[in-house]
Design goal:
The chain has about 220 residues and is an all-alpha fold. About 65% of the residues lie in helices and about 0% in strands.
Length: about 220
Amino acid sequence: MSADREARRRQILDRARDVFARRGYHQAKIDDIVAAAGVARGTFYLYFHDKRAIFEELVQRFWQKIVMSMARIDVERPVEPQVLAQVRRILDVFLDDPAMAKIMLSDAAGLDVEFDRRLLAFAADSAKLLEDALHDGQLRGLVKEGTPSVLGFFLVGGVKEVLLQIVRSAIPVDREATTRDIYAILARGILVENPKAKARAKPTREAAPPAPAPAKKKRATRS
């Protein structure tokens, strides 16, 4: 695809995102999208089969951004700044694109059976990545004991609600304060307090009690 065609496609995607965020999927019309993008209706169909196709691509691209923002924690380096950086990256993905964040958090689910199936597949893939990361963290002494899938559901549910309320609010967000608040909750509930020492700790076997000294033979005495 030429640079001009790619730029036009990107323009239609961006304007469609704004229309969906403002009107919701069911109320949004292709006429709304082409009017916002400043293109003819026929031009829209050169790039997308229908309204659902462009909506699905927007959701899929956003999921990919979320997955790409995740990074493995290195236990050999200080953990706190790594986790803080991870939380910042995820916050940035959502807060840098509030229109798409609103679509993902409140509008994407319930579109229809087939789309929900695909959305659940995206969510399942992400949940599996998080579950594997938490399990790996437990093996390396970074994460407290517990069922990784349950810890993952708790983590995703809590962060999702925080993001949803932030996106809905008209009050400016202090990203650094929010990052530290989320980290404080993680540190108290999921993360190990001293992961490096914990990871290097080796179980020690109890020392065996010393063997009893052999009994001395009594010398026989003559009567």
